[in-house]
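Long-time lurker, first post. I've been practising inverse folding by hand and with some scripts of my own, and I keep getting stuck on stretches where the structure tokens seem ambiguous. Below is the full token string for one chain I'm working on. Before anyone asks, I'm not after the true native sequence, just a reasonable design that respects the backbone. If someone could post their per-position residues I'd love to compare against what I wrote down in my notebook.
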């Protein structure tokens, strides 16, 4: 690819934003095989982990840390898994040469490094180059990490042409899915976290406009996929491609990212409204109280919980005392 086209691609990222377990992985997998996109197959957690770690480091030291934190996934394999693969036994990227990705990363950074954001661009383009995905059709590179929404100001400062796609999910279903990974999260803790993420996405869309910041409901995506997929393609100004209908990861069939160990080969609406059968009424009520304004704003059902089964005074007490308990938890560092 000519240098000017590579520079164009470098400056055109798409960041997938949203709360963990909200459906951000599904959006990434939908975009994964589109011929105009270079989609990174794993979360980089660039803003929350890598960026704080390079403060005060030289460019060479920043590159060394990029080798360890941004492209380490290409050392993952099932036969001899490294420590960094612990918890991800099914992720095997051994067909992509780590050394090739590393060489391309360093080569790209040596050509230009205006700011730390160029290291992220270089890492993802290095993956695209080493895997043979960069072509004259390529128009965007895509990165997905939960909570990217909190870094929108930095994103649009470093990449003025960037696009963000923010996924919002019913907080009750979101909680049911997320607590399987974090059983210590109480509903009031989750609801406060979900509210902050959702409000940030709403504010970002107002600030940067619908042409650069897209918000979508997970439920609309899985229930009306054709309409939402067309909206995403239009938002990114990419051609419709049938690959959008088949979720993949690094070009391979994606079997889902469900905390319920459910596999699927396409976009499934099965994970919607699961909370009605699995969430205790008091927990659902706590989340509804804390997120009611957002439930209304995003057209989610309210009051479906059987209030007769709830000690409402106890639920309200949990909500009212949560700010105090949160301060105590933070002070104790737990």
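-- Answer (accepted) --
I ran through it position by position. Result:
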């Amino acid at each position: 690819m000519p240098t000017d086209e590579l520079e164009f691609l470098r400056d055109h990222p798409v960041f997938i934003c949203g709360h963990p377990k909200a459906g951000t992985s599904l959006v990434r997998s939908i975009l994964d095989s589109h011929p105009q996109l270079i989609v990174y197959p794993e979360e980089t957690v660039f803003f929350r982990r890598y960026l704080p770690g390079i403060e005060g480091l030289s460019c060479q030291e920043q590159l060394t840390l990029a080798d360890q934190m941004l492209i380490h996934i290409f050392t993952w394999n099932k036969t001899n898994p490294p420590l960094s693969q612990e918890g991800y036994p099914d992720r095997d990227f051994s067909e992509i040469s780590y050394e090739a990705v590393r060489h391309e990363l360093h080569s790209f950074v040596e050509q230009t490094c205006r700011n730390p954001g160029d290291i992220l661009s270089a890492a993802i383009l290095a993956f695209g180059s080493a895997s043979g995905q960069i072509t004259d059709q390529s128009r965007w590179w895509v990165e997905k990490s939960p909570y990217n929404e909190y870094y929108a100001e930095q994103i649009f400062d470093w990449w003025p042409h960037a696009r963000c796609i923010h996924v919002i999910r019913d907080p009750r279903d979101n909680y049911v899915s997320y607590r399987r990974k974090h059983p210590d999260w109480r509903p009031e803790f989750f609801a406060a976290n979900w509210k902050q993420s959702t409000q940030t996405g709403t504010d970002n869309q107002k600030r940067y406009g619908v042409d650069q910041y897209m918000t979508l409901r997970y439920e609309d995506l899985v229930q009306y996929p054709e309409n939402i997929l067309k909206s995403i393609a239009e938002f990114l100004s990419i051609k419709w491609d049938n690959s959008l209908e088949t979720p993949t990861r690094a070009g391979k069939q994606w079997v889902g990212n469900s905390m319920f160990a459910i596999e699927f080969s396409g976009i499934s609406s099965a994970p919607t409204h699961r909370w009605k059968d699995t969430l205790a009424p008091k927990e659902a009520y706590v989340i509804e109280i804390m997120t009611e304004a957002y439930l209304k704003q995003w057209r989610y059902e309210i009051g479906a919980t059987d209030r007769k089964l709830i000690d409402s005074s106890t639920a309200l007490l949990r909500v009212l005392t949560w700010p105090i308990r949160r301060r105590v938890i933070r002070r104790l560092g737990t």
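A couple of notes from the structure itself: The chain is about 50% helix and 10% strand. Residues 187-208 form the longest helix (22 residues). Happy to go over any region you disagree with.
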